[in-house]
Design a protein that fits this description.
The chain is an alpha/beta fold and 737 residues long. The protein has 27 helices and 18 strands. 32% of the residues are buried. It holds the Pfam family FAD_binding_8.
Length: 737
């Protein structure tokens, strides 16, 4: 951080102090925690003791600013001494003002008391670091971390760590030493402020236009066609007056949009197009976004269309035989080609469309009420029926897209109902993830990253929900779905399988179940209570393609999953594992990885980034990642084909002083045990959030070909990653369905 940022940070500290301090202008320990947002008691007490130079059990603003001035303007040694004293909890502090060559006075902290760190003190520090980072490890692992850091730092085997030994140990970690000299804001962090945007707006940059060229060209053509339809319809109805012209112009645009919105959701048709050259011209990967844009356009057109007709009816009522309410709510004026019902159907259409848009809002879909969105969206059948009655020409626009829609529905219904599909195995995983194993139909073919709609009558008879297939296409016997409990249907699914005995057995399968129950109990005892076999009827509609189908045609693919957003990449990584099969020589036991390439396989490098909030979220997918690491254990001559990067956002970042000791211990123990203490993988879990600029800069310098970034997760993070991709001219794809 710059000096200006440090100055702003000191102003923030001063304001926090003045807002909390009483009439005596001093704060105690509890007020100190509130002022500087320090949660963990150990660190709060140590900081408080260091800042309380007169030992009065309270801190004045002068004491606080003098201590913080040391952290901002002090030397590297001064800051190291401060860190040492935080760890040396049995020591006491003497602070005095020393002269300096600069105009200000810096506090020079001298060591007093024990002057060394013993194993118990180090263990206390690491335990507090773990709590601050929301990391849960067994006591034995905490002892291992303490021992690893202590043995590495205690150079003379004296049984304690001196200041010089701690300094020498920190020099083995260049990142830590660099962070010590950056800024005081890395020691006690205020709430993060939004960074002020500088430079040209993102939408005006050349990189944005290049990376979104297909979408922008499509929107330009869509806008041009809409304007053309609007003007043409207006000119054809000039005798009717201004408001009538506007209403007819919007009506013609509605004819087009109310059928085009259907085309954007022909999933099977779009999946077929993804395998053709059309995918390089049209933005097929953004069909959901375009569907939403057209939906909002329909809402706007209907509002303007209705408003224009109302004003037109006002003019007619002033000079005609009918009053305004008769024009709007009756068939007496005879407006419309089906017994004068245009006004009535128009009012109903306006209400239904507004309700559908409202129930499609993000806050409805993401707040655990997917069923509201699902059932309200089925009203499209009523909208099309009413449009047929409302407008005499709508059928001309509807006939061809309607036939495609009907064909797709018939094919989907036939595919989903043919053959008996059953959920044959269930695993209840951490973070309330339900792993379904479904017997794979003989003629069911899909590609990595595809998704299906699943219906389980036992859970909900008429509901279909989309989920990514998490198994590889090479697994011929079964399909995997990993479903996280986030809404009503997914919670019912998870709770259903938590029951002691399955309730899914029909009479035809009861006898077989009784014969195999003893065997299943033995299996359950082996795998645990959260693993069971079953025979639950289900139906599947799909598969449907996603942007991830382009991964194997990329040269350098970056897969980014946030939380449960890893599921499409589970299929892809497993497919990679099958394609990069490990071969063994029977005579000399030499092993190597043979890259089995097909006509589409152009991959030279894959970077897999998984971001999770907490430690438990990693547990359900670790077994697969462990297998992948085993296959990639020996580096290839040109470098490792697959690199994994794990991030845990609840853990304190390496920039945070409170995390320095823990991160050093985790690094040392990982090198010693050759596995990460948090996940058990060889890949070290990084604390905090990725610094996307640095991450993408490194990938850009590898020169493995054009970089394509594939993301599945929250929309907020997608915007951040997409903005960085535009800076580096990376292609960005977001999973949408």
């Amino acid at each position: 951080m710059s000096l200006d940022e440090d100055a702003r940070w000191l102003d923030w500290v001063t304001n926090q102090f003045e807002s909390i301090a009483g009439d005596d202008q001093e704060i105690d320990l509890e007020e100190f925690k509130t002022a500087l947002k320090v949660k963990e008691s150990f660190f709060a007490e140590r900081f408080f003791a260091l800042f309380d130079s007169d030992g009065s059990s309270s801190i004045s603003l002068d004491e606080l600013l003098k201590a913080l001035d040391l952290l901002i303007h002090g030397s590297e040694t001064d800051k190291l001494k401060f860190l040492f004293q935080v760890y040396d909890s049995s020591g006491c502090i003497e602070v005095y003002a020393s002269s300096s060559q600069t105009d200000h006075k810096a506090g020079d902290a001298l060591l007093a008391g024990s002057g060394s760190i013993d194993p118990d003190e180090l263990r206390t520090v690491l335990k507090s670091c773990l709590r601050e980072s929301a990391i849960s490890l067994p006591e034995e692992k905490l002892d291992d971390l303490t021992l690893a850091l202590f043995e590495s730092a205690d150079k003379d085997n004296s049984g304690s760590i001196t200041f010089e030994e701690l300094k020498a140990e920190l020099e083995n970690f260049p990142e830590v030493m660099e962070n010590l000299t950056i800024s005081a804001a890395n020691w006690l962090k205020p709430p993060q402020e939004e960074q002020q945007k500088q430079g040209a707006p993102r939408y005006l940059t050349r990189a944005y236009w290049l990376n979104n060229s297909r979408k922008l060209l499509f929107l330009v053509l869509y806008t041009f066609l809409s304007v053309l339809l609007f003007i043409t319809a207006m000119m054809q109805h000039r005798p009717g007056g201004g408001w009538f012209m506007v209403a007819k112009g919007c009506g013609q645009c509605l004819n087009f949009n109310c059928t085009f919105i259907m085309v954007l959701m022909l999933r099977r048709f779009l999946t077929w197009l993804r395998a053709t050259w059309v995918v390089r011209v049209l933005p097929l990967d953004q069909n959901i976004l375009l569907h939403q844009i057209v939906g909002y356009a329909i809402l706007c057109y209907t509002l303007v269309h209705t408003t224009a007709h109302i004003f037109n009816f006002v003019q007619l009522s002033q000079s005609g035989d009918y009053r305004l309410w008769e024009y709007l709510l009756t068939t007496r004026p005879g407006i419309g080609w089906v017994k004068g019902t245009a006004s009535l159907t128009g009012v109903v259409l306006q209400l239904v469309i507004c309700l559908m848009v409202l129930c499609s809002s993000t806050f409805v879909r993401r707040s655990g009420h997917f069923e509201v969105f699902y059932w309200s969206h089925l009203s499209y059948m009523w909208i099309w029926s009413l449009l047929m009655v409302h407008c005499a020409n709508f059928w001309k626009w509807f006939v061809f897209p309607g036939l495609l829609f009907l064909l797709e529905k018939i094919v989907g219904l036939a595919v989903s109902r043919m053959g008996g599909l059953y959920v044959v195995e269930v695993n209840l995983l951490p973070s309330k993830v339900t792993h379904l194993v479904i017997k794979r139909p003989q003629f069911f073919h899909f590609k990595p990253g595809d998704y299906v709609y699943i219906n389980i009558p036992t859970i909900a008879k008429y509901e279909w929900h989309p989920f990514t297939i998490s198994s590889a296409p090479e697994q011929s016997e079964s399909l995997w779905l990993h479903i996280r409990s986030m809404g009503q249907w997914t919670n019912r699914l998870y709770e259903y399988f938590r029951q002691p005995e399955s309730r899914d057995l029909n009479p035809k399968r009861l006898e077989a179940s009784l014969r195999t129950r003893r065997q299943r109990r033995k299996v359950s005892a082996k795998f645990g209570e959260n693993h069971r076999f079953c025979n639950i009827k289900c139906y599947i509609d799909g598969p449907y393609g996603t942007p991830t189908r382009q991964i194997f045609t990329s040269e350098h693919a970056v897969l980014i999953g946030a939380g449960i957003g890893i599921t499409p990449f589970a299929s892809i990584l497993q497919s990679i594992m099958y394609r990069m099969r490990k071969q063994n020589c029977p005579s000399c036991n030499y092993s190597w990885c043979e890259n089995i390439k097909d006509s589409e396989m152009k991959l030279r490098k894959v970077d897999f980034i998984w971001i999770n909030r907490d430690q438990k979220s990693f547990e359900w997918f670790v077994s697969l990642l462990t297998k992948l690491e085993m296959d990639q254990a020996d580096e290839e001559p040109e470098g490792r084909f697959l690199e994994m990067h794990m991030y845990m956002t609840s853990a304190l970042s390496k920039n945070d002083m409170k995390a320095i000791g823990l991160q050093m211990a985790l690094d040392l123990l990982a090198k010693k045990e050759k596995k990460d203490s948090i996940t058990g993988l060889r890949t070290r879990t990084q604390p905090g959030r990725p610094e996307w600029g640095k991450v993408f800069q490194k990938m850009s310098e590898e020169n493995k070909g054009k970089v394509h970034v594939f993301y599945c997760g929250s929309t907020a993070l997608a915007k951040v990653i997409k903005a960085q991709c535009e800076v580096f001219s990376f292609n960005f794809y977001k999973e949408n369905f």
